[in-house]
Design goal:
about 210 residues; homotetramer; L-fuculose-1-phosphate Aldolase; eight-stranded mixed beta sheet; about 35% helix; alpha+beta; globular
């Protein structure tokens, strides 16, 4: 339960930021057929998140609602995204995280299927690995986990939790589904999202070119 | 024969909706070389449909005409698309359908040729299958039929009719030609169209990556 | 020699049409690195054509000049494109042609190299073959010739001439170079250009998918 | 040390030119996740260059700073790009160079990894080779060097220097990283950049199509 009110002015700023950024991601084709969802931390107990089922290319202020850290709607009778729990568990667990972006680009979906058996995608040897907060060289390697898809968000959230016990993480794939990426704020989360998309695209193309097995 | 008049105000609204949406689809490259056609149900006896041969990237109100459910022009001397019958048979058959979209994206055309021999494309294991009205899980499978191409629309319409006797359907491919997709209204038809395009694209890419045979 | 003056008002209209259309083609990435050239028939003895070397994404009226049907500049000290002769020979030979478009898309260039050995690309089984003026069915086949590249335009022009003696033609490829397409006016030439691009793209993708050898 | 002042009016013009051009390159997806950097020669002793870490899709005047030819900031407490030295060494060495562009497109990154073992990519048989200043025929061949990546810019700069002793060069790749291209001014550097991108894309596609080994 969350009895404290949130700051309406901050909500207005974040809602504007979300709709502007989601429109850009929709234009890239990363949110097909009303899929994908996006959120920002409002304060210690509240999250601004996109409502269920909206066309991400035509979003307005009315498509952003507030939930508490358990995913329960606050002062709203709108339905939050079915995957709200995957957002709120990250905010509960990682106090430094202020933004969570979930997209369904073709590259993300294809990579998730291709590497589902292996359970992860290893990214190494790329200068762009420096885009992930904390990396300062291309000599690092980043393993992107791929979880099995399920309509049970508690199962998925628990798997993410278990992995976060073992390693730092800026994103993960769900098989046949898409990518979750996050960061301190919108700018960092988008930088991480773009880096994942770019590096997964390179891996798929290199495989088509006969350089991966 | 259709002696009843239609609602001119509703036609104006639908024509605006069609031209706006077609411009977006044209910008995606899904309507090459004046191909493709689009319609909306006006009322029980009338359909608003794009005229034959127009450049879909430069459409205006003058490129939308009215036909009855037999495909005969109503109060117009313009020529409706040669494929008008494929639209009107869906409206006759399926009272809940309010919008039919026919596009020619490269992905749709390539998939139609690749799977013409098999007669269908099986889509399974994707979260985006939930985009099709009536599906609530990625554990469903959707089979997209691929019909042989013909310049005889009666033959094609009868094949679609026969298939609708057996199963619900939100779209089909025609070999070397393109995709038909439909829905309750423009928003749902576009959601179905985008989901077909996305999933066919994933299937083609997975095959290039050696994951389909 | 061409002593007759041309209609300046018609030139203004055609120059505007060319720059508008070229900007659209440049935005598609079909005119990389100041390549490509474009023309319209002004009258029986004059052609409006793009000047040599301009960035096709930043064209204005000053980048359109007039040449006679021998390719000689008329009332201008600008240099026409090195390939002007390929345009003017088509206008000389084919009185019904009013527009010639030469682009360098990746698809066109790649197809030209892939099929240079065979000397042609066969396009068949596509609904979009109906986009070529004179075709009314997908059951036609269109062979797109691929000529060897040369910096000698007279050699190329003679090869095109020889082929036109044998068959009607709406376009051809030059190896490692790009595509020429033409039509009655800008709309028809663009329809032909888009159809070639689309069909060559489908052929390349089908080959990647193992459906062509 | 560089005690002479630079021309503030010229800096304003170049900064505007850089931000306009970088926005276009960002829209193409060639500057993912705040990567890439860009510069223009201001005068014999100064260079205008993008600051470190900015989102290239949202650049303004405040993201352009001045360094001397040793890469030391002039009248600024901003941090120049880590790769500033790769820019300034080109300006020191090649007096005719006025613009250096470094991008990270997927094509550039993929090609750099694919050809890193060979140490170069040979481009031949393309009309677009004429886009490189000094080439007048498609019968030339251009070898694009691929250097091993390193976070030590002095090592990379020395390798580029050694190669410039042997041959003229308009660009090079760094493994897993991206492309450097340059020219007399922004227009020529962009023409070279577009030509490299286009030709590398063609090479990758031809390899997928079984025409390269």
């Amino acid at each position: 339960m969350n009895a404290l009110p949130y700051d309406a002015a901050r909500l207005a700023v974040l809602a504007e930021e979300i709709t502007t950024n989601v429109a850009e991601l929709a234009a890239l084709g990363w949110t097909p057929a009303t899929s994908s969802n996006f959120s920002r931390r409002l304060d210690d107990g509240h999250v601004a998140i996109t409502v269920s089922g909206a066309d991400k290319g035509r979003m307005g202020r009315e498509h952003i609602m507030v939930v508490d850290l358990q995913g329960t709607p606050v002062a709203s009778d709108q339905r939050p995204s079915a995957e709200t729990l995957l957002h709120t568990r990250l905010y509960q667990r990682l106090p430094q995280v202020g933004c969570v972006l979930h997209t369904h680009s073709p590259v993300q979906t294809i990579a998730s299927r291709l590497y589902a058996g292996a359970g992860q995608v290893r990214l190494e040897g790329y200068e762009l690995l420096k885009a992930f907060h904390g990396n300062s060289t291309h000599e690092a390697a980043v393993d992107v986990p791929v979880f099995a898809n399920t309509q049970n968000m508690k199962v998925l959230a628990a798997q993410v939790d278990a992995l976060l016990d073992q390693q730092p993480l800026w994103g993960y794939l769900i098989d046949g589904h898409g990518l979750y990426a996050w960061g301190r704020d919108m700018a960092q989360a988008r930088r991480h999202l773009e880096a994942f998309e770019f590096l997964l695209h390179c891996e798929l193309e290199l495989r088509k070119l006969g350089c991966r097995t």
